[in-house]
Amino acid sequence: MAKNQDLGFAPNYMSALEVDITPEAATPTWAIFSRGITEVKPTTNETTDTKDYYDGYGTPTDKVKSVQPQYEVTGDRCYGDPAQDYVASLALETGDGRTGHFRHTDPNGDVVEGNCTYLNLTVGSQQGAASDPGAFSCTISGAGAMSFIEANKLKQPASVTCTAPTGATVDKSVKLAPVVMPAEANPKCFFASGNTDIATVDSDGNVTGVAAGKAVITVRCASKPSLCTQVEVTVAAK
Length: 238
Fold this sequence. Notes:
By secondary structure, the protein is an all-beta fold. It contains one helix and 15 strands; from the N terminus they run ββββαβββββββββββ. The N and C termini lie far apart (45 Å).
């Protein structure tokens, strides 16, 4: 059996930046920035106040008044990708039409979640050679107070299992519940449907039937994508 290792210097692809593509619904539908994306650059837009107090003897003191997390997303335009398609649909919106919700999960499972504003949208630009793909870029800018959920899972995943759900029908969702071991590993998983004409799957593992038939869903450990399993979901007619 392979020795379980600490997460260590985790590469960037083990992180997950997701947006809610149904912001008006009662429950979010999370879609991940992955296909076509070459870089996700996190930054903090900080507001500071500098004061030079007498007890500092001429040395100024900085205090951080506010922190605004931002994520600069760049890559190639991938038509049909849920996250890119949703952001692209906002290109001509203004005001509240550019607001939404985001979630960022680090390789160790720590989560930052909150409201956001979509800024600096570039979708399908025709700059470059004729054979080049269109460009995609945007900035996910945090809005208001953020929620931080600490996980601090420092072990690499050693195994992942998932039981095929039952009860899937056209236009009805069932949820995958993968189990990542050991318990000290990040439980976050990535999901992909092998046949989106039969069933789609969102970033939380909710499988929605599109047509009657069978679809194979691949489940990958976010903190070790080479570790994966597959489940076959049967979708019944409505």
